[in-house]
# Entry
Amino acid sequence: MPGAMFEQLLTTTRIVRTDRLTADDLDRLILYCAGPDASVAVIEDNRPFGPRDRMLEAFASLRPLVRQNRVFPDPKVDDIMAMARALAGRGTDVIVGIGGGSTLDSAKGVAAVLSNGGDLDDYLGPAPVRKIEKRDVKLILIPTTAGTGSEMTRFGVYTARTGRKYTLASPWLQADAAVLVTEYTSDLPAPLTASTSFDALSHALETLWNRNATPVSDRAAAEAAVRILRWMEPAFDCSADGRREMLEGACMAGIAFNRTGTAAVHALSFILSEEWHVPHGVACAFSLEDVMLENLHDSATAAKLAGVARTLFGDAPHDLLLYRLRDRIVELKRKFGLPFTFADLGVHAGSGELQPLFEKALDDPKMGNNVVPFDMGVVNRIIASKCRP
Ligand SMILES: [Fe+2]
# Structure
């Protein structure tokens, strides 16, 4: 079966796949989405990126184009508001986000504020004062990393002015089209491949150990998990096939967790990013095998994970399959140079100092999605295990 034919039925976002994206391709896409006279704003990061820059320079001769690049990891409200202000009143018809997850989330945030007004902070947190009620611009998202799956989700993650990271969810954050361009991930540096691969794997697995799971989300997530676990090592080793498959796998994982939200791994990861600016995928990888072990207490989740392992490793007794899956995750983390302990993160503190910092993870709605309930006892146990030398 061609890799990703059927998942299109699970999403309202149209998926376009190509090895290279030319200015003419993007122009045609915008023509079909928004018409011949549509004007375009591109949200991108400020690092030079040859394939994107050459394409956009050629595209600028085809349509009115504004480029905005106040994009940084863990996108902050002030940066998104600055880009929205720069675009206000210019009659933008289409926002195109080209970049990693932070860029795509920034594009979603700019589109939301341009269409609904106010300040992005008003939409964030447990008691937001505003709600996203519409989108007046078309949204096209083009990932340059294979990780967040943001191109396929109704979620955006933003750092409020208080410094807390919040997930914003709205059907109006769902893109009209996602374009998967193999060339854009072909030169991804190894540390970024490691981080984004584990973000994608976490999305697939967190969809499986999720209270909102359905047979459909389970199927999509299991397929994504198998694909990602099969291809993340070749992608890390710079195989072209690996890079292409990971782009697909991350996209499929995005489709899967769009139905359920994420769970404990992501709730814990937000604290690591807020406190020590740990990159998102690295922060997800940090507790992935520990959260997996906790979730094996749910027999339905254990059966799903054993099914993933059986597809990957062949038939074996249930418990052995689960051990092999956990070992594979640990082995990949080692090979990718990802952290296992707080000391690996450069954080030198005892569990007594660290545990209180993680209390707020329990208030995160993502924690409530986890199929096995997490209380401070469980969280403290995980943290203590990561304080050992
Ligand atoms: Fe994530």
